[in-house]
Structure formats: C-alpha cells, structure tokens
Specification:
alpha+beta; 17 strands; four-stranded parallel beta sheet; globular; 308 residues
C-alpha cells in the first residue's frame, strides 16, 4: 500500500477524440480537492509528452508518488517509455477509445471512482513486453497487445478516423482494409515456451499475428484470450490464411469480444517471439512500433500499477 500525496497527471488532447481532455480536467480537480499536489503534463506530441514525463521523474528526491495517465492505451504506452524502472507506480483514469489495460486490471470507467483507486494506494505488479523492430532505434514498451499485419493496418487507420466513435471505428477500419492480398508469409521463432522446444520455427501464411500481454486490444477485442498479465510470458495468436468470407464473419465476432474459433487460428505462449514478414507494420498499445522483422520479449514484474 502506497501513500499518495502527489501525482504527475498526464493527459493527451487526442485521447478519445477529446474525451481525454475532459477526463484530465475532472481528475485534476478531484485530486486538488483531496489536497493532492498535482503537476500536469500535456505534450504537443508523443515524443514531447515522453520527454516531459522523463524530466519530471529525473530527480529521485522530487518524484511524485504516482504517475497518472488520464487517457487511453496509447497515452499509457507513451508514459511507459519514461516510467519503467523508476519505481513510481502507474495510475489510470480511463479517457481513451479502447482502455484495454484499465479493463484488464478492473479500473472503473467513471472518473471519480478511478481517482479513488489511485488515492487508495493499492498496487499490483504486472508484466510488460517490449517490441524491438529491426529498424527502430530502441525497444518499445507495451502493456496490452502488439498487432502485426492486417490488425496493425486497421489500428493505424482507425487512429486517423474521426467517425464513428468508440470501438466501432475498428470494425469500419477493418472493412476498409479488406482490399487486395490479405495473407503474407510469416516466420515465427519461439523461445522460452512451456509447450514448444526452444527455437521452434513456424512458417505459414497469415493475415495477422498478434502478441499479447493482456487478452484484449481495440476496446475489448479478445485476440489473445489466454494471456495472463503476470505470468512472465507473452501469448501469440496467428490468424492464418482463410477465405475473405470467413474473415468477414470473424471480425465482427472479434469486435464483440468473442473468442476466435476458426481452424486457421492458432495460439502460442512463450517468453520471446521473433516475427518476420514482408511489408508488415507493427503497433504496440495502438501506437506505431515499426515494421517487421521484430522481436517481442516478456518482462516479468516490470510495472507497479494502482488497482482497486
């Protein structure tokens, strides 16, 4: 249990198409009304936000008791890049489109209740993952799911859309992406798996391959349904080549939070995966993470998060 007397409150004007701003204002007022010292950060870009958070945490003697992300999974991902390794816990006040990490650890959607969770000071230690794309300058931390292939393209398109609101954006974006060739050849290397010999290689055509630390992404899509957030492992789902009509049936079910049941879909669990595929983008917590090839690594107990 932590005593929370000061918070660094991080907001994103773009979270939830403006909802994040309102949530951030409400959270700041609630913290102040409770006598909590509030320092606010709202960068002009992801890089600016990360740099401001990093600067605020640079002096151990002046660090806040918690860093609170008032927004969605994308904002949380930005915060993680500066927060991991500091020993400061993460608090969440949901204000984004997906809010999958908050849902995974049972943070309430309602702002007053989420602020109460932060001030309660109860923490849980969870795993994180990193994705290192071959062309990227550094690994990128993620808390929920990394997508590659069709799902990454869908996420990137959905992030640019202004309509419709909420998780339905992902379904619309998916329909718009269902043009041309869908499946590409993937090579998947598996290391540290409880079920497969170390160094196992899977080669198959796939429409998308997702690597999850949590079960869902995109506002409740159950893409890695057996993932456990504190087991020290990552889960990988391969959606293999299938007729377009089958995919059109699968995507609405996925959007509705149903488990994927299709013979072309397979699941793997391991501490590390390396994925190679041509022209396949990757996203981490809904943010761009480079292009494949990339290596995905589980980091057990990497984060303390404030929970109910």
């Amino acid at each position: 249990m932590r005593e929370i007397r000061s918070v660094l409150l991080v907001t994103n004007p773009l979270s939830g198409h403006g909802k994040g701003v309102q949530v951030g204002i409400a959270a700041a007022n609630l913290f102040a009304a409770r006598g909590i010292q509030v320092t606010e950060v709202s960068g002009e870009s992801a890089t600016d936000t990360e740099n401001q958070v990093r600067a605020a945490l640079a002096d151990p003697a002046a660090r806040p008791d918690a860093v609170v992300a008032a927004g969605g999974d994308g904002l949380t991902c930005v915060v993680l890049q500066a927060l991991v390794g500091t020993g400061v816990p993460l608090g969440l006040v949901p204000g984004g489109t997906g809010n999958d990490l908050a849902r995974e650890v049972a943070i309430p959607d309602e702002t007053v209740a989420a602020v109460d969770v932060v001030l309660g000071g109860k923490t849980r230690t969870i795993d994180l993952g990193t994705v290192q794309a071959e062309a990227a300058a550094r690994p990128m931390w993620f808390a929920t799911v990394t997508g590659t292939g069709l799902d990454a393209r869908v996420t990137l398109r959905a992030n640019r859309m202004t309509w419709p609101k909420g998780p339905l954006r992902y379904t619309v974006a998916a329909l718009l992406e269902l043009v041309g060739k869908l499946a590409v050849p993937y090579r998947i290397e598996v290391h540290g798996s409880p079920d497969h010999p170390d160094g196992t290689v899977i080669e198959q055509d796939a429409i998308m391959v997702a690597v999850g630390n949590t079960r869902t992404y995109g506002g409740g899509m159950l893409i890695t349904p057996d993932a456990v957030i504190d087991d020290g492992l990552l889960n990988l789902t391969v959606v293999g080549a299938m007729p377009r009509r089958d995919l059109l049936r699968l995507l609405p079910a996925l959007s509705a939070g149903k488990r994927i049941e299709h013979p072309a879909t397979t699941q793997y669990t391991a501490a590390r995966f390396t994925l190679t595929a041509p022209d396949a983008p990757a996203t981490a917590d809904g943010d761009p993470a480079g292009m494949l090839p990339a290596t995905f690594i589980a980091h057990p107990g990497a984060l303390e998060i404030l929970v109910p």
